[in-house]
Design goal:
The complex is a heterodimer of chains A (337) and B (246). Chain A has 337 residues and is mainly α. Chain A starts with a helix and ends with a helix. Chain B is an alpha/beta fold. Chain B has one domain: Rossmann fold (3-Layer(aba) Sandwich), CATH 3.40.50.300. Chain B has a six-stranded mixed beta sheet, sandwiched between helices. The model of chain B has no long low-confidence stretch (mean pLDDT 85). Classes of the chains: A mainly alpha (337), B alpha/beta (246). Chains A and B meet through α8, α9 and α11 of A and β6 and α3 of B. Chain B: Pfam families: ABC_tran.
Chain lengths: 337, 246
């Protein structure tokens, strides 16, 4: 494929992804507003009617249900923001930070469960996860500054340590609540609650907004941290920003992928994109496209087979990665001649 | 002529290990300073101190007249680090994307405008890699890659160019071209600080030499350095000196 055709295909893919994302944000917002705004309720019902027609023609039983749309919307948005943040993380050689923060977020869920069981607090568990994950993110950043590295030792300590705290709290609090902890570990088989979907919408705006503003700065510190320091960028601040964004994405994505698999969405599409991309900008574009392909195909498989979405999504992502390796070694073999 | 870098009685240690001891030196506008010394002599540390990457344990450093930790005109300094410290090796970044980074300090949070892009084009032209603009940095040869980093420094319209062993792993021919390029940049008025392990190259090109091994053994023009004993004192009688004659 020549460069122009390739760019056109990528552009079409990004436009399609953006339209899909806007539609999904619309659906999730309408669902949130339908009890308060008459017009929203009307539009939402029309949308469900369209879903019924889709089910009728496709022979499926998916699109007529509001909760399915909510889950699909969450999956699609995660398939955008996780690879975007992951593009910086992977090339910053911080790939396992996501995994670490997921385990920290798990401790947050445990703390939330414990709080709600003992104090009657009925806040959202994801809020607790988000707060603790952001604190964990700042903790990782602090450790990295002190030890002068994002090396695997502080990461391993943080990862296992927060999981250990999480399990202790859950053991103490066992029987206090009816929440299935497996959903947080392995990703939910069923549906994302409306509050979870709304959280991801907010996260999507926040992450894409921050990236749009700080694209250049994050690129510079990722590519050449020392030169960025010399150019008087506040590298510590941007590192903290990147890690906090990672925590935010991880907590949203955890609903679908679970603590254990969440890092895959940050890393695998980016690894695939980096095999083929000719520039950093193209890496971002391709990682979002590969991320979308993974979540859509993976989610379709999960519905078809009636299993949790996390496994299929990750397996599809890795299949794409293997294909890009094959494609890139073929193209470099061709260019040898 | 104004002072670009003013270092007074600076000492810096990594924990217990003193890397730079009581060094004072000034670099004037338009100087081409060669910074030499044996391996582990604190050359890179001294350069990092000048640029504000480390804070001295004692002593003062001024950059363009401001204390270095308050200096915030990032675009006035172009820095080419030792190759290993940049991720150009694995990250898919094009030459143009890398050179555009030189404009980031100017643009702040805004987009690069047409003028910025024109300056990037000029920088690519000056170092002779316009035809490589869309190639990935990690597909370039060592010499081409260093040119890309120089272009980035030029794009920032830096007044001070700091280079830390820029030609490690670069073939001899590209190295000569590279040093010719530095010469012509220096003649245009850009101040240059160069760390280089090949003393022959430094004495050929630089107009001032600072020779350090923890302490400053010599700082002055190249002629006085060649006549002095600073080299053998700093490197020790048995020191391995890379020395070649043209």
């Amino acid at each position: 494929m020549n460069a122009t055709a390739r760019r056109s295909v990528e552009f079409a893919g990004i436009v399609a992804t953006a339209l899909l994302a806007v539609l999904m944000i619309g659906v999730i917002s309408l669902e949130a507003l339908r009890d308060h705004v008459g017009a929203a309720a009307f539009l939402y019902e029309q949308f469900i009617v369209v879903g019924e027609w889709m089910d009728y023609y496709l022979g499926t039983g998916v699109f007529s249900h509001g909760f399915m749309w909510r889950t699909i919307g969450t999956v699609i948005l995660i398939g955008i923001i996780a690879p975007v943040v992951g593009t910086y993380l992977v090339h910053r050689e911080m790939a396992l930070i996501g995994e670490t923060l997921a385990h920290t977020a798990f401790a947050g869920v445990a703390v939330g469960l414990f709080f709600s069981a003992t104090t009657g607090w009925d806040g959202n568990l994801l809020t607790a996860a988000l707060v603790v994950a952001i604190l964990g993110a700042l903790g990782v950043q602090w450790l990295a500054e002190r030890t002068d590295t994002y090396g695997d030792v502080p990461i391993a300590i943080m990862l296992t340590g927060s999981f250990a705290v999480g399990t202790i709290i859950i053991e103490y609090g066992q029987g206090l609540s009816g929440v299935a902890i497996e959903d947080f570990l392995f990703g939910s088989a069923a549906v994302v609650p409306s509050s979870g979907a709304q959280l991801v919408v907010v996260q999507t705006f926040a992450v894409l907004g921050v990236i749009a503003i700080t694209y250049k700065q994050l690129l510079f510190i990722t590519f050449d941290e020392q030169a960025a320091r010399v150019a008087r960028l506040n590298v510590t601040w941007y590192n903290a920003l990147l890690i906090v964004m990672t925590a935010v994405v991880v907590v949203g994505a955890m609903q679908i992928l679970g603590v254990i698999l969440v890092a895959a969405m940050l890393v695998v599409p980016v690894a695939a994109a980096s095999q083929l991309a000719e520039s950093f900008r193209e890496t971002l574009v391709l990682s979002v496209l590969f991320g979308q392909a993974s979540v859509l195909a993976g989610y379709a498989i999960s519905i078809h087979q009636g299993i949790a979405a996390s496994g299929p999504i990750v397996v599809v992502a890795i299949a794409i990665y293997l294909l890009t390796i094959a494609a890139s070694s073929r193209s470099s073999a061709l260019s040898m001649h | 002529m104004s002072t670009v870098v003013d270092i007074q009685n600076v000492t810096f240690a990594y924990g217990e290990n003193v890397a730079v001891r009581d060094v004072s030196l000034t670099i004037e506008e338009g100087d081409f300073l060669g910074l030499i010394g044996p391996n582990g002599s604190g050359k890179t540390t001294l350069l990092h101190l000048m640029l504000g990457l480390h804070s001295p344990d004692s002593g003062t450093i001024e950059l363009f007249g401001d204390p270095v930790d308050e200096f915030d005109d990032g675009e006035r300094i172009g820095y080419v680090s030792q190759k290993a410290t940049s991720r150009g090796g694995s990250m898919p970044v094009t030459v143009r994307e890398a050179v555009r980074m030189g404009r980031f300090a100017h643009a702040g949070f805004g987009r690069l405008d047409d003028e910025d892009e024109a300056i990037v084009d000029d920088a690519l032209e000056t170092v002779g890699i316009t035809d490589l603009a869309d190639r990935r940095v990690n597909q370039l040869s060592g010499g081409q890659r260093q040119r890309a980093y120089i272009a980035r420094a030029l794009a920032s319209e830096a007044d001070l160019l700091a280079l830390d062993e820029p030609t490690v792993g670069v073939d001899a021919e590209s190295r000569d071209e590279f040093y010719q390029l530095l010469d012509s940049l220096n003649q245009e008025g850009i101040t240059i600080v160069l760390i280089e392990h090949d003393i022959g190259v430094v004495t050929d090109r630089a107009d001032h030499i600072a020779c350090i091994n923890q302490e400053l053994y010599h700082h002055g023009d190249t002629e006085s350095f060649v006549e002095s004993d600073a080299l053998s004192e700093a490197y020790g009688a048995n020191g391995q000196v890379v020395h070649h004659h043209h």
